[in-house]
Specification:
177 residues; alpha+beta; Arc Repressor Mutant, subunit A; 2 domains; two-stranded antiparallel ribbon
Length: 177
């Protein structure tokens, strides 16, 4: 647990005032956050910590996207479509590439279509298939989000160095095997 001590010295006119600010924690330990004294094993703590942290990040992202009237899953679909642009995508392609595999891609596409952020058309090659393309409005919205996303990501990872984030990525990849 890292602690930081703050000492602030203010020089006033003709006198010196010393203000001591007691220590504060840069980040709380999991045990303190969920009020659990101990875990059976490092594996149990790791799993609980992973789930707890996922939910914390998810809440941060939901709050961020709220100002754009989007959900995390809608943003994910728009990013996939931007990556495909100008090539259309299918519902199956979106399902395969979405981060949340339990999402209903068809409903997400319909909600984004109603917001004019994407278009659906019957495929000219296969009438049973639907081609989905991001619109100029969708690209413009992603452009606005991109401007603020870098800052938001830095805020989420503010307690980690770049090297620690890179190590975290390696560990996540290793965890999934």
């Amino acid at each position: 647990m890292r602690k930081m001590y703050l000492f602030e010295i203010y020089l006033g006119i003709g006198y010196l005032s010393l203000i001591f600010v007691s220590y504060f924690y840069l980040n709380m330990r999991l045990e303190e956050e969920i009020r659990q004294k101990q875990f059976k094993s490092a594996f149990e703590k790791g799993l609980v910590n992973f789930i707890y942290t996922y939910n914390w990040v998810d809440a941060q992202m939901k709050e961020f996207f709220k100002s754009f009237d989007l959900t995390n899953q809608q943003y994910n679909v728009l990013r996939i479509l931007r990556g495909q642009h100008p090539t259309p995508a299918t519902i199956n392609l979106l399902r395969e590439r979405m981060l949340d595999k339990m999402s209903d891609a068809s409903r997400i596409v319909e909600r984004l279509r109603l917001k004019d952020l994407l278009e659906r058309h019957t495929s000219e090659y296969d009438r049973r298939s639907v081609d989905i393309c991001i619109t100029e409005e969708g690209l413009a919205l992603l452009g606005k989000i991109d401007v603020l996303m870098d800052r938001h990501q830095c805020e989420i990872f503010k307690n980690l160095t770049v090297e620690e984030v890179e190590q975290l990525n390696i560990l996540f990849d290793k965890l999934r095997g």
